[in-house]
Amino acid sequence: MGLRKREAADAIKAARKTEYFAKLRNVPSSPRKMRLVVDMVRGQEAFKALGILKFSNKEAARRVEKLLRSAIANWEEKNGRKAEAGELYVKTIFVDAAPMLKRLRPAPQGRGYRIRKRSNHVTVFVDTLNNDK
Questions:
Q1: Could you tell me the residue range of the domain that residue 94 belongs to?
Q2: β-strands 101-106, 88-97 pairing
Q3: How many Å apart are CA 38 and CA 124, to the nearest integer?
Q4: Going by DSSP bridges, is the β-strand pair 120-128/88-97 parallel, antiparallel, or unpaired?
Q5: How many angstroms separate the CA atoms of 39 and 94, rounded?
Q6: Tell me, what's the pLDDT at 9?
Q7: pTM for the model
Q8: Is residue 13 a part of any domain in this protein?
Q9: What is the reported pLDDT for 47?
Q10: Residue 38 burial (10 A CB sphere; 0-12, 13-18, 19+)
């Protein structure tokens, strides 16, 4: 690796040490369904977002709730203390499309219909409220 790339990689690593995030990869549901849930908690205070997700009827909400708990635990691990209510908020949360499984369903008269089984990746960043100001 060249000097320029190494310096850029070190700068990215240093920036990552001050960010608190969690990723959920290859979730077997469509990105569109996941985005409906993610949009409910974007920008919310972290523990309020957990409450919203806990009482949501969507199946994707269970996965996002677990992911948000993981991001909060990552923040607690890096800072060496427990998070208090009103201290953390969901800074960024987004859903990306993951690879799709393509299947064929038999159809009449020798045809076949394509079935696309979609999946997604979810990434959540949490931050402190006073750090943003």
A1: 20-132
A2: unpaired
A3: 9
A4: antiparallel
A5: 9
A6: 94
A7: 0.87
A8: no
A9: 95
A10: buried
User: 60-108, pLDDT tens digit by residue?
Assistant: 999 999 999 999 999 999 999 999 888 999 999 999 999 999 999 999 9
Per the structure, how many domains does the chain have? 1
Both tokens of residue 98?
């993951």
Residue 132 has pLDDT above 70, yes or no: no
| Six-digit token string for 96 | 């990306």
Distances (CA, A) of 31 to 20, 34, 42, 43: 23, 5, 16, 19
Structure confidence at residue 119 (pLDDT): 97
Q: Helices then strands (H, E): number in the chain?
A: 5, 5
* pLDDT for residue 16: 85
- Is residue 21 within 8 Å of residue 126, measured between CB atoms? yes
The SS3 assignment for 90 reads strand
What's the maximum distance between 2 C-alpha atoms anywhere in the chain? 65
Average pLDDT of the chain, as a whole number? 94
For residue 50, what is the domain's CATH number?
A: 3.90.470.10
12 is a domain residue: no
In a domain, 123, yes or no: yes
**Is 41 contained in some domain?**
yes
